[in-house]
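Take a sample.
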Amino acid sequence: MSLSAKLELRQSQTLVMTPQLQQAIKLLQLSNLELAAFVEAELERNPILERVEGDGDRFEAPAAEPAREVESATSLPGEVASTDEWASNAPGEAVQALDADYASIDPEASFAELAAPGLSSWGTGKSGSGGMVGDDYDLEGFVSEARTLADHLHDQLAATIRDPIDRLIGEHLIDMVDEAGYLRGGLSEVADQLGVPLARIERVLAMIQRFDPAGVAARSVVECLTIQLRERNRYDPLIASVLDNLHLLASHDFASLRRACRLNQEDLADIIQEIRGLDAKPGLRFGSVSVQPVVPDVLVRARQDGSWLVELNGETLPKVLVNQSYFASVSRGVRNEDDRSYLTGCLQTASWLVKSLDQRARTILKVSEEIVRQQDAFLTYGVEHLRPLNLRTIADAIQMHESTVSRVTSNKYMATPRGIFELKYFFTSAISSAGDGEALSSESVRHRIRQLIDAETAENVLSDDKIVELLRDGGIDIARRTVAKYREGMSIPSSVQRRRMKRITERTTRLAS
């Protein structure tokens, strides 16, 4: 057999993921905070990109389109400027790629694989309108930091312990206290590490356990509650016996707890009431990690005619434009090919970013409009009327790819008259009805189960079988194991545990009155 070289011509179709298209896909899934940080980083490294600060700036966004009702379409706020005019002046590759369709993206491709070079790290810049630009100050930067539990304990240590060795031991132990106030780690390891006797470690720990808040630096829940009871001068053998059987109290097995502690119902009720007044996690009173409030991306408001107005939240949309004047003035002074290539790349990147932001906003709005159309009954009547919904239904209705809808609904929130919900909240599985009616949303079924359990009394606690029967009478066909799964998912105990809890609560209430 002889080998020979030959020339063949073949034709095939492939999907080429340009860096610009990768950027557009990446931006689609970002939350508003991540998007603001990314845009801030782009503003720092791209001189052609210009921030729109307000009416006093040279660059203004076009006027917003008039608002339209859902059942037709709704408006896109004028916070994101159109870039058609600028894009026409960009290099040819950018102009051709501006009309890229999100629907052509492989739904199985991960974002780590699609990330363009330089887009995997957003930088540490602050959000678009909250950063410090020129003479504008970020007021949040001047807010005092929340005082932590460690700061509080270190201050008490400095005022209480004078011996330098004991103070060093105390600082080491305080560093081992977690956010809930518990000491994590063994004392023997501390003694070996610091080279001091174990007895001295225990003595310093006993001093720290007298610090505020009561119960701090405990090594277990029992020790934490014991410290608090001793401070209140309420620790006695009866309470100690209950704490020794705390697992029975946690499982609400009051019959076994009475037998183990040899207590009658009234004494046990008094002790349980005393224990419930204690704080099992004393360290949580102090600040740890600041919680970022949810800022909705989409706003939904009811109109007088019964329709819904859907619009984007302009506060979450970055306001950037391409500074064509600066590009023209700088281009006139370019003397070499490297500088010209750099400026052209900056212009192309800036034009693509503005176009991608505009496309992202329109896509989010389009998906949100369809969600509102599908879940109109939920907005009008409540969670019991939440319809079963999946990504394909939305994708088919708006003629987009299912993967695009999935990316749009990630980390995006919608503010409605019934509260703020993540867009993914509206997508729930279907539960068949008992008759010929429409299928029900699993979320509405969970809501109905919680309603039935909330209406229970100590004498009428519903078993899972009884809940199945009541749901079937209400037109919901559901299996017992499904009720149990939903109940456990909502952290609702079994009927036996609920009956015990309600009885002890009623006795405690009677004794307190």
Remarks:
- Residues 55-68, 72-143 have pLDDT under 50 and may be disordered.
- The longest strand covers residues 298-302.
